Amino acid sequence: MLEFPAIFMPAWPDPTTWQLLRRAYLGNLLLEGSRYLGAAALVWLLLHVLLRRRLAHRVIAGWPTGGDMRREFGYSLSTLTVFAALGMVVVAGLMSGHVVIYREPSRFGWAWLLASLPLMILWHDVYFYVTHRALHTPWLLRHVHGVHHRSRNPSPWAAYAFHPVEALVNGLVTPLALLVVPLHWSVLMLFALHQIVRNTHGHASLEIMPRGFARHWLGGRFTTTTHHHLHHETARGNYGLWFTWWDRWCGTERADYLARFDQATPPRPAVARKVWFDAGHRHAPGSGARTITRLDGIE
């Protein structure tokens, strides 16, 4: 039986092979870093800067502090080095023939191509729930996972704010899948894009989903920012990643989740705005037409 390192590493790589692996590491570091920076910056800029006042009534508990964001960013840079190393290991697996990432859709059939992305998301969900529960055992929570829980009101920059050991655990989800099944390169790209976008959104500290979403028969199957935020508040319950069913099946969903979601999604406060009328027609401000004040409230 092959030992785990031998599965991924070619036997006694020559200097050219090591050079290729170093390039793979740097390429993966650039790719992972650009995804993280792009997604986190976009969500932060949109929700925390441009729409900050408009969405202030959707803040779940409080805005993240500058200190929180600096710490999250620093740990996320550490995580990127771990993820890049795991990407290099996958490249080594390709070179040794133990990993298959293909480009021609017909190679393994369209049925597998279409099914592989949702199956990867489901695999990630169950893998995360199991490992997340393990990381909440007292010693690992104190010495490893506690790094992530330092943010009670996390920001999108917390998406990768992990202790290096936790980064390794989380980063293994794709290499482990590739040990078992071949994956199309586009599936890997979409899988990575899905996880970083939803990860940054899940740490936004404000709820942007519509009222009633968590109580809807379909919407209630998906985790929301509120769902994960409650986990950050107390480090108890709501261990799920993308879907709520594992928490519900295992009895770990927070009892106050739906009530807190309702609190985080109130109607938008009524705001006064002036509407200019003249014989039933609207006019531009300053035209001399009479004005009335109307209260508008939207969710």
Describe this structure in words.
With 299 residues, the protein is mainly alpha-helical. The chain has two domains: 4-264, no CATH class; 267-299, no CATH class. It has helices spanning 4-8, 15-50, 66-96, 110-135, 138-143, 164-171, 173-180, 185-202, 225-234, 245-249, 257-264, and strands at residues 101-102, 183-184, 271-278, 281-282, 290-296. The strands form two sheets. It has a three-stranded antiparallel β-sheet with strand order 4-3-5, with no helix packed on it. The chain has a two-stranded parallel ribbon with strand order 1-2. A hairpin with a 2-residue loop joins strand 3 (271-278) and strand 4. Helix 4 (110-135) runs parallel beside helix 8.
Please provide the count of β strands. Answer: 5
> What's the helical proportion of residues?
40-55%
Poorly predicted runs: 272-282, 284-299
User: Which overall shape is indicated by the principal axes computed on the Cα atoms?
Assistant: globular
Mean pLDDT: 89
Please indicate the percent range of residues in DSSP E strands (runs of 2 or more).
Answer: 5-15%
Sequence of secondary-structure elements: HHHEHHHHEHHHHEEE
